[in-house]
């Protein structure tokens, strides 16, 4: 495999020294299958946490790995968008998969993932009753997902960000179309559910991050598609959250927002921590404009039979206006324009 990156002699020597040890090569082979925590690697490799941490620290300092925090956990992954990560992935893929040591590691990886999935689903089972109650009030999830996919359309995108990813369902639907896909959620427990779902769907290379929607850990202009699905009604300052999300768009990038239409179901505020009881169409259009987005779609999501449910669901789409001349906007509704 030919790397698209060039390394200086000192850098390459540093990377090779960092990788050139049996346990570290085994770690690289495991991380080529997807991100893992220190405790995952400790269980798989049967070595102490301090020893595994030292190996990871050495390889991270050499640029072979990326590290991210998720509550009390640290997760590590190979990032082939960086020179060191691309080299690490090349080394991992050059290892013989039939090697008995590596094969045993993969078997233990499968067991660790199964245990993790069971724990995640146990958590989700505890909140499923609340989710089912909410789902009964609005159009089926399948209709919402179809509406999002229709709003994405055939315009290609490379980097996808799903804010408030929850169970990871939007990533399951859209990540296969992206070169890079990232999901962010404030809840470690929900990220555990998403991680299990994505691994089951064969999408273990998707990045999951615990984060604050008001202080997202990404460079501006990093994504050409951002999804904000059923998140704003939990926030004290939804307009600020949209500005933060829009700032991550590349020129001409798109933001798709899904949330509730205005309603009077006060129990959602008192029992389910909703801060806002839905959003007016024009209110969101104005927030888009403040965030530098032109809104070219605002529609109510309905089921196949035209029903909208007791709790209306709205979808808005905005485009970063810096390339407006290259992306003609469609007038969707004189009422909104």
From TrEMBL:
It holds the Pfam family Methyltransf_11. InterPro entries: ArsR-like_HTH, HTH_ArsR_DNA-bd_dom, Methyltransf_11, SAM-dependent_MTases_sf, WH-like_DNA-bd_sf, WH_DNA-bd_sf. Residues 1-98 form the HTH arsR-type domain. It comes from the Bacteria. Coiled coil: none annotated. CDD domains: AdoMet_MTases, HTH_ARSR. PANTHER family: TRANS-ACONITATE 2-METHYLTRANSFERASE-RELATED (PTHR43861). This is ArsR/SmtB family transcription factor. It comes from Bosea eneae.
């Amino acid at each position: 495999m030919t790397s698209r990156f060039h390394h200086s002699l000192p850098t390459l020597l540093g990377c090779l020294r960092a990788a050139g040890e049996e346990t570290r090569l085994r770690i690289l082979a495991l991380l080529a299958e997807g991100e893992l925590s220190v405790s995952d690697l400790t269980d798989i490799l049967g070595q102490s946490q301090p020893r595994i941490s030292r190996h990871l620290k050495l390889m991270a300092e050499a640029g072979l790995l990326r590290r991210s925090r998720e509550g009390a956990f640290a997760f590590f992954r190979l990032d082939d968008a960086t020179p060191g990560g691309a080299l690490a992935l090349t080394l991992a893929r050059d290892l013989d998969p039939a090697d008995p040591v590596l094969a045993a590691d993969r078997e233990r990886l499968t067991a660790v993932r199964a245990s993790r999935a069971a724990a995640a689903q146990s958590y989700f089972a505890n909140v499923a009753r609340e989710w089912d109650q909410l789902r009964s009030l609005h159009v089926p999830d399948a209709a919402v997902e179809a509406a999002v996919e229709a709003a994405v359309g055939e315009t290609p995108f490379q980097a996808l960000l799903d804010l408030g990813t929850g169970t990871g369902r939007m990533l399951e639907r859209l990540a296969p179309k992206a070169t890079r896909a990232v999901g962010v959620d404030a809840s470690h427990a929900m990220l555990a559910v998403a991680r299990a779902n994505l691994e089951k769907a064969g999408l273990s290379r998707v990045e999951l991050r615990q984060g604050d929607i008001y202080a997202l850990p990404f460079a501006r202009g990093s994504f050409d598609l951002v999804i904000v699905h059923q998140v704003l009604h939990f926030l004290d300052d939804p307009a600020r959250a949209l500005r933060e999300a829009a700032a991550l768009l590349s020129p001409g990038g798109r933001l798709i927002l899904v949330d509730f239409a205005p309603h009077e179901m006060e129990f959602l505020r008192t029992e389910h921590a909703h801060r806002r009881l839905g959003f007016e169409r024009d209110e969101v259009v104005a927030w888009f404009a403040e965030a530098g987005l032109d809104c070219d779609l605002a529609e109510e999501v309905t089921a196949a039979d035209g029903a909208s449910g007791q709790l209306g669901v709205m979808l808005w789409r905005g485009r970063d206006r810096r390339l407006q001349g290259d992306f003609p906007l469609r007038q969707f509704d004189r009422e909104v324009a």
